[in-house]
Fold these 2 entries.
Entry 1:
Amino acid sequence: MNKHIKDLMSFLDNSPTSIQAVQQIETRLLAKGFTRLDENESWHVKTGGKYYINRDDAAVVAFQIGSLSPMDGFHLAGAHLDSPCLKIKPESEKRHGNFSQVGVEVYGSPIIATWFDRSLGLAGRAVWREKGSKKAGKTQISPVNIARPAAIIPNAALHINRKVNDGFEYNKQNHLQAIIGDCETPADGSILKNLVAGELRIDAEQIVSMELFVYETTKAELNGSDASLLVSARQDDQTMSHAILSALLGVSKPNKTAIAVWYDHEEIGSMTRQGAFSTFLSGIMERLMMALGLDREQQLIALRNSYLVSGDMAHAFLPAFAQNYDTDYAPRINQGIVIKSNINHKYATTLASKQRFIEVCEKAGVSWQEFLTRSDVPCGSTIGPIAEALNGVMTIDIGSPMWAMHSIRETSGVHDHISLIKVLIEYYKQ
Ligand SMILES: [Zn+2]
């Protein structure tokens, strides 16, 4: 199997939430010699150096400082680490006879029906209190990943819910209840705390608060007679996140400084301190340019000479739903990278940014396709227009074609992922 596809599958399997995705990114950056910079300290950087910033364990910016003058601008690429999902309401744990269940909140816009009858793990983080040491009473925050089937949201049988095949609408409060234990489990309403405590090797009473999401435990797999399809959870947008990461790790001694940003919270509008609608990237860029000795005018020149590739998965043509596409602009899986445009600028692509990206594709020998939505349906959006507006950097929106965006399992093409890494390496090294 291609090494990038193997690594992508491992990345997807081990990134149930943005928290774990950041751990995956950080591990790979450290292995390639990147140094962590702290936002609370002064930075000292040098040409050729490789650095990264981790904001609240939920978003990352990483960069390799190029050999050209910083005034020549930066090559940026960005994606998001969060995916639509279900978050547990920890205080909702209730006993129903011999089993327990919890309610959930809906994060973003998942295809809700796909979350039923799946084996679900639990991941997120927990705040817990130290005991029995000098630190007794102090609180810590730790990532948690219960990577085994620990919950399930069952459908009612067809015979109980006769309308299920007739446009039935699931109610988010009533029907999305996750079963988390049977008669073997304690009846004191503490199943979740016990599960998390077991994972962290602490006692349940040490847990102060938890932020847990359910996620699909079935691993990423190749599909199709030629194994050219990749089926996995969270490909929007961890597959693009992985392509950007692989390209940044795959380039050495770039001419322009190569920057990657992985945001959180795109699926809920990006307006958080680690989302695209924040000063996260612009603040880091400003500090980087100051550390490289640029005055304000030189910084503005550097931004004018910079370019941002916004990466988010794209909608591939699905013949069974042909009428839902503009078939002149309906990308095919494994037929190349998708350039997304929208007249109302829901995507950041402009004619000039497209011109520049097509040149990179041609140089890399990678084919590309165009996506437009039907003129009579609204368009989705990405981090692209937001990051473009906040940073004033010319931007393009691209993606890999994929079926079933926002389903618990999504299907993309392995050849597209390999092409994507190839074109991003070509871009970064220029
Ligand atoms: Zn997305």
Entry 2:
Amino acid sequence: MPEGPEVETIRRGLARVALDRRITACRSDSSRVFHGAAATEALAQVLVGASIHSLGRHGKFLLADLARDGEVSGAVLILHMGMSGQLRSSALSGTSAAADKHAHLVLCFEDGSDVSFIDPRMFGRVELGVRPGPGELPASLAHLGPDAIGAPDPLARLGERARRSSVAIKTLLLDQTLVAGIGNMYADEMLHRARLLPRRPASTLGAPEMARLGSACREVLAEAVELGGSSLADRTYRDISGELGSFQTKHRVYGREGEPCLECGEPVRREVFGGRSSHYCPRCQS
Ligand SMILES: [Zn+2]
């Protein structure tokens, strides 16, 4: 599932091919990825003739701010990749993916190129929103916590909650209302780097441990963005050119059950709790 670093990689690729180019046509189907007004003809009315003025990201959401005749309208196209969503640009990958049977939304640009939103499992999301003010999130995203990659202190809200919460620290890292953009994979990686067990009750973390977690969060996500995100064995994550990411080669615990911990050699363990697999080193993490 694409997490913050994967969506940031997609955002950077999309910016190369779509910024300030007029959308000349838009094709969408009636699949469940479309929500609210995006599920109606309003989607084409909003998009055709508009251009993407700027491209933002908050957590795992991509936000394309639209302009019409050079005027920023406040309208935003919001995309979430869900479990298996991808964007593919004909200009960067060399061929159009518009005919792919899983292409639910295709945007055609004035230069003849197109960008397709492909999502075989259809857990992704396409919606329209409006920014209440410059830089403010549309109402449907207002519940999200600070962005894990871009916020100056991404774990500030999580730290507040952690003090009075006995739930596992990993569960808090995955709570998008506390910090947005971290999923199962990067939570495991940052907890190993911070030498904290995923199951550790949040309220038992002292200030130095929270500081370690904050540093691990910044480091892991920055390195993952640098390497274009992580593509796992199923290869469902690819960037907008169709290329795989390479941060998976740097994973210390995620997907490495039974393999030696890179720090101490102890076999990495996998444990299921909260409906998810957690990977950790029983010697390095406590
Ligand atoms: Zn270890």
